[in-house]
Amino acid sequence: MPYTFRPAVESDVQAIADIYNASVMAGGATADLTPRTFDQRRAWVESHTPPYGVFVVESEDGSIIGFGALSVFYDRAGYDGVTDLAYYIDPAWQGRGVGTFMLDRLLTEALARHMRKACGIIFADNAGSIALMHRFGFTQFGLMPAAATDSTGAMRDMSYWYLDL
User: Fold this and answer.
1) Cys-Cys crosslink for 2: which of 14, 60, 96, 143, Cβ 3.0 to 4.6 Å?
2) How many domains would you assign to the chain?
3) Residues whose CB falls within 8 Å of the CB of residue 96, separated by 6 or more in sequence, listed in order
């Protein structure tokens, strides 16, 4: 695969914001209802201090085509070692293996950072992400009906997934 996975840097923030905001506006992938500003995305990236982190995937030409994060699952010390996964792919690159590449690398990073569990919280009708959860051996551990709306106003069920690392 001609993709590169690396930690995000300051110069990636605009691409991260653009990819995320495309997902916000399309609906079906995030419960944010309005686009995030550059400064909001920069603060989000900066909030990911070790052992957590934000990462990008570059195409062969160096363009940022996706980003993902290992985030705090819950801000109580007893949950250290559990990470919440998130990943977003540029719409032009969806369906081309970037999500699979991203999730594989995120899980590798989680292991290297001594995480013991990875969790995904996903709209239950997000077929692409649900397929990735199955592909990587995640177990669904919950479903919250009508938990969130997206930017289109659609009410979404939330599915909860985990993987022992």
Assistant:
1) 60
2) 1
3) none
